[in-house]
Design a protein that fits this description.
The protein has 446 residues and is an alpha/beta fold. It has 16 helices and 13 strands. The chain has an eight-stranded mixed sheet. A five-stranded parallel sheet has the order 2-3-4-1-5, sandwiched between helices.
């Protein structure tokens, strides 16, 4: 069993909503939505019914089609169909994979108004237009995202509840952890980079620390994603496959902006835009957009045609990058574990930072400007994050980095908006020259 932070959010919703809203858990395929929904139902309610629309029978669909206008009859038949008694204000009805039957989602408005039971929905690909085009999204629906396990949740899965509170305290006080402890945590963090945060991969790894079993689980998920593209991106699936397959190659370059020229000499953003949107809405990737003018805010000056395309889970990126080879041929696992990263393999560290930053914000941004005539204007900042009214630049560096010239240029060019500048790297906490240096495993605290 994996402990997830979203559980406390669901408990708070149950208490505060008291039946006045339904909760929608949105997330990528295989991120653990159904598991956490059922775990919550078993612990917090007298009874529950899980309606799996991915495996809906003809009788179930007929119930929704023919009897949903008479809720007394609807609930009586639903209870009989699942051989489960329903208790007023103490039963939960789960609509699992509700995107497979959007009409059930539209019915939420009337079920909530009836007030007898609580309702929890789970959905993948629910943001895709084809899954919402014929329904009115109920205003009674709250949303929460379930993302891959963050580093703290990964440590919990490994049986470590003690380390992260210390990490948080050292982050807040900007105090070094010390060489021995930092080395131990970096070793755990490297395991997190390789395994990732998909529950099936974590479970395959946690007991025997078997990377090969973990890799098998991740490849199954990647195959499922490819099947989803073929099924749900009908008409432009070839373009989605092209973008998806190009992600490791794009991230392995020094400048990680997705260059459409790699997909063909005549490739243009307008012809591939739907493909990037599809991958983002399926929550397979974390897009990161170029902000052209930090003075006016991150979202207002975002250039969606210039983006970096990170994998939503770094463990999946590891398997995706070496999908053509056998596990035994994958030297990346050894390179990460023994801190022998090459330049190309360093893409994983920037990807895992994007994954960790995404846990606390809906959108990711970076700053890039090319100016060969005036090198003072030529810079690339890996990430920009809003801290109050200020914009904090974040650079991801390898352990042996010597300078942070882009960070210095950015601070000089935008002095009125710059907040705390950060360098994320493989060493311990350090504050130097007005820049806060943090170990990579603190990224999700920013």
């Amino acid at each position: 069993m994996l402990k997830r932070k979203i559980y406390d959010r669901l408990v708070t919703w149950k208490k505060e909503s008291n039946g006045t809203t339904a909760m929608m858990i949105d997330g990528a395929r295989r991120v653990g939505k159904s598991f956490i929904a059922e775990q919550f139902a078993k612990a917090e309610y007298k009874s529950y019914i899980l309606v799996d629309f991915g495996r809906a029978s003809g009788d179930l669909i007929a119930l929704f089609e023919n009897d949903s206008t008479d809720l007394d009859l609807f609930f009586a038949k639903l209870s009989a169909l699942y051989s489960t008694a329903l208790h007023k204000r103490n039963s939960l009805i789960i609509f699992d994979e509700v995107q497979q039957y959007p009409r059930a989602r539209q019915l939420i408005k009337y079920l909530v108004a009836d007030g007898r039971y609580d309702y929890l929905e789970t959905g993948s690909l629910i943001r895709l237009k084809k899954n919402v085009q014929d329904i009115i999204i109920p205003s009674e629906e709250e949303h929460v995202e379930l993302l891959p396990l963050d580093f703290e949740e990964f440590l919990w899965a490994m049986g470590d509840d003690a380390t992260y509170p210390l990490i948080r305290r050292c982050f807040e006080t900007k105090t070094p952890l010390g060489a021995a402890l930092h080395r131990k945590i970096m070793n755990d963090f490297r395991q997190y980079v390789l395994v990732g945060g998909m529950p099936q991969a974590v479970l395959a790894y946690k007991d025997e620390k078997n990377f090969e079993a973990c890799d098998v689980a991740k490849r199954r998920i990647l195959k499922l994603y490819r099947n989803d593209v073929a099924k749900f991106a009908e008409g432009y699936e070839d373009k989605v496959f092209a973008v998806f397959d190009g992600i490791p190659g794009q991230l392995s370059k020094k400048e990680k902006k997705y260059k459409l020229s790699s997909l063909g000499k005549t490739a243009r953003f307008r012809t591939f835009e739907d493909s990037f949107v599809w991958l983002g809405e399926a929550m397979v990737v974390n897009p990161c957009f170029n902000t052209t003018d930090p003075h006016v805010g991150l979202a207002l000056s975002a250039d969606h045609a210039t983006q970096k395309c990170y994998m939503a889970d770094t463990g999946l990126l590891v398997s995706h990058a070496f999908g053509d080879g056998k596990f035994a041929d994958n030297q990346l696992y050894k390179a990460i574990l023994f801190d022998k990263l090459s330049i190309n393999e360093g893409m994983l560290m920037e990807n895992v930072v994007s994954q960790m930053l995404r846990h606390r914000r809906e959108r990711l941004y970076f700053y890039s400007r090319s100016d060969n005539k005036n090198r003072e204007n030529h810079m690339e900042i890996d990430f920009l994050i809003a801290e109050g009214r200020k914009i904090s630049p974040v650079e991801v560096k390898s352990g042996d980095y010597r300078s942070h010239s882009s960070l210095d240029k950015f601070r000089k060019k935008f002095p009125s908006v710059v907040g705390t500048p950060y360098v994320l790297y493989t060493k311990d906490v350090m504050v130097k020259d007005g820049i806060v240096h943090l170990p990579l495993y603190m990224a999700e605290l920013l």
